[in-house]
Amino acid sequence: MTKVSISTARSQLDDLVRRVADGGETIGLTAEGHVVALLVPPQVVEDLEDDLAVADYRRRKAEGVLGEGVPHEEVRRLLGLRP
Prior knowledge:
- The protein is α+β, with helices and mostly antiparallel strands.
- The protein has two domains: 40 residues, YefM-like domain (YefM-like fold, 3-Layer(aba) Sandwich), CATH 3.40.1620.10; 42 residues, no CATH class.
- A three-stranded mixed sheet has the order 1-2-3, covered by helices on one side.
């Protein structure tokens, strides 16, 4: 992970965002030598959210606290898909 001070990042924001968006790079923004924020590609966050949702589902399933599911036919109807 590349680290850049916040003061430097102010003047290089366009370049830093491009590096993250186009190159998939993660950039740590530092204050007083410590990483205080991250610039990360959106896909990284989306993947983490997906992983958390799956882990939560598995935990609830293992605990036996999953609610009633929605029948496949009802999901198709709600989405306006053919039966």
